[in-house]
Amino acid sequence: MAALQDQRFQEAYELAVGLTADGDQDGQAAYLAGAAAMALGRLKDAFTWFSEARKGKAVSELQLERALGQALYMAGKEKEGALLMLKALDRMGLGLFGISPVAFNTCFPIHRLQHRPVMNVYAQRFPEMAEFEKDWVWNNPPNGDDMTRLYFLAENLKRLVEDGVPGDLAELGVYKGNSARIIHRIAPERRLFLFDTFNGFPDRDLEPGDHRTDVFHDTSLEAVQDFVGRHDNLIYRPGYFPDTLDGMDDEAVFAFVHLDCDVYAPMKAALDYFYPRISPGGMLAIHDFSNPHWPGVARAVAECRCQWKESLVVIPDRAGTAVLIKA
């Protein structure tokens, strides 16, 4: 098994290095090469690639600082590495949780220290959780800093299935398909509608105050289909939302809706469309509700809440997901 893992890490390393040769302006391929090199124990190469990734924009300075700290610590420079990791965690607003530097080595990777459930319980409830964790970060390393949202989605979607809440599933804001793949794996017997441009934000939706306009272009419908699947119950709706609602069944109902579209116009349209169609006991999850970088999300919710009977609960994941259970 260890040999097979090393072979896969080597293949991943060679693939990422090859991508850097083809042009890696955002630094994501260099970051992936560094992560694969560190998994192989090639710490000098890891340090080199993480340093190279600093030149791009795909990976935040904090993530690189933390990764460099890991490489230093594992290379024997324990004091320098631990201090760099602690500094990065502190700047990320996570606090230090009383964790000693030794814990960083024994609990690698670090994101496992953040808000992780009691896994001897979850191992029984979710035998596939280890695979979910891999799917969550596949081709999307920043998700490693948002494991809370993974556990929240898995636990609550499984509850909806067990409770027999009727209806389809939907996600607006699919990006690379990490959450969509997990949603489909937990409830493969249900139809899952996936709405996205699969090419970043349309210019007409961007407003002053939105955090960044140059993100989420590094995906495609074909890439997401390759990762999530092409089954009959996976219904892809590429294009501009709400235009992509054309042809939807007027009688459609939903058990679970995950909104992760970041900006005001599609969020407001989605709330107007999905809320009245959610089954009693069904869930509406609104990502980035607490995120000051995307103020349009909270504004859209504020405009709709006066029509709702239910209260919201906010999950303390990385960007604050607001949750509503339909009465």
Task: Set down the secondary structure blueprint.
Layout: H1 2-21, H2 28-39, H3 43-53, H4 61-74, H5 78-91, H6 101-106, H7 119-125, H8 129-137, H9 147-163, E1 168-172, H10 178-186, E2 192-196, H11 221-228, E3 234-238, E4 254-259, H12 264-274, E5 278-286, H13 295-305, E6 313-315, E7 321-325
Parallel strand pairs: 1-2, 1-4, 2-3, 4-5
Antiparallel strand pairs: 5-7, 6-7
**Percent of sequence in beta strands:** 5-15%
Please, what is the CATH homologous superfamily of the largest domain? Vaccinia Virus protein VP39
Shape: globular
What is the chain-wise order of helices and strands?
HHHHHHHHHEHEHEEHEHEE
Please give the radius of gyration in angstroms: 20 Å
Q: Any guess at the CATH architecture of the largest domain?
A: 3-Layer(aba) Sandwich
Helix content: 40-55%
Mean pLDDT: 82
Widest β-sheet, arrangement of strands: 3-2-1-4-5-7-6
Assembly classification: single chain
- Quickly name the level 1 CATH class of the largest domain: Alpha Beta
Low-confidence stretches: 92-114
Summarize the main sheet.
Answer: 7 strands, mixed
Q: What is the rounded distance between the termini?
A: 48 Å
Structural category: alpha/beta
Number of helices: 13
Total strands: the figure is 7
User: Could you name the CATH topology of the largest domain?
Assistant: Rossmann fold
Count of folded domains: 2
Describe the structure.
The chain starts with a helix and ends with a strand. The chain has 327 residues and is α/β, with parallel strands linked by helices. 46% of the residues lie in helices and 12% in strands. Strands 3-2-1-4-5-7-6 form a seven-stranded mixed sheet, with helices on both faces. It is globular. The chain folds into two domains: 2-113, Alpha Horseshoe (Serine Threonine Protein Phosphatase 5, Tetratricopeptide repeat); 127-325, Vaccinia Virus protein VP39 (Rossmann fold). The model is unreliable at 92-114 (pLDDT under 50). The protein is built from 13 helices and seven strands.
